[in-house]
Design a protein that fits this description.
325 residues; 13 helices
Amino acid sequence: MEKFKQNPVIKKLGFNRIILFLILLLMYAFFSRVVKGFASMDRILSILNYVYFLGFLALGVTFVIATGGIDFSIGPVMFCCALISGYTLNTYGVPVALCLVLSILIGTCFGIFNGYLVAFVGVPPFIVSMASMNIAKGLASVYTKTQSVSWPQAADEAGRGWFRNLVKFNGIPTGIIIFAIAVVILFIVMHNTKTGRYILCLGSNKEAVRLSGVNVRKYQMLAYVICGLLVGIAAIFFVGAYTTVQPGLGDTYNNEAIASCVMGGTSMAGGLASIGGTVIGVFVISLLQEGIMALRMTKEVQMIITGLIVIIFVYADVSARRRKN
């Protein structure tokens, strides 16, 4: 097995990512076998709808985890972005394009808030993310007066449903094109730029990076800002795929996004991240969610399975680090 892992091609692709991709294929084959019509285009589009918003959440939190931090507020912040921008659209008649920009700005502001407290004030990331999660829930509930918000349908008479073309246009999943472009850009940022290298180095040895003259606070904060920006984009794809957003929700997506990162090879200890692995992890979680729904099981079953998967992959990561040390 060790000889197989040391193969240049396997090392380049990543042994864990190969295993995760095989798991994805086996899961799809299993659900296609036991669920009638699971391989239909409608099912595939449903899986992709989940991939888009969860993918942007997971990609964002990958940057944070790479620094050795954590952010449990991404789900509620996504709902906060969708609720506030949607309520602004419906109540005050603000153009759809400006409301989409507002969603991104709200997510970015939360990223700046979290990053500043962690990097410059020194508040532990866990405490900051817990506080931001409650602030996001409360802010959205107060602004919308605890009412759910419905975004315009594609057939809206006023033509306000055009943003849904970002997700699907004439049955074509245009969202996957946008998502793929975003993945390529973020892969380059993480693995081929000075910013990405410094973010990864922060997770490996923050003090050594500081002693080398790098402004560690700047890059630590930047990771949270990137995360917030992507959360705002995730909100756009959420409302593009679905219609109604309810206050006080979003916690579940934190766990699923973080699980996607961990499964994909991003170490919870920081210093090691994989954009490609995160994407595969997102597809695994999205496929699992759709498969469990098709089998008419409850959401709680998915939570149990996701939790077990996270434990297995975290254990594998810890074991690998021990062997390396």
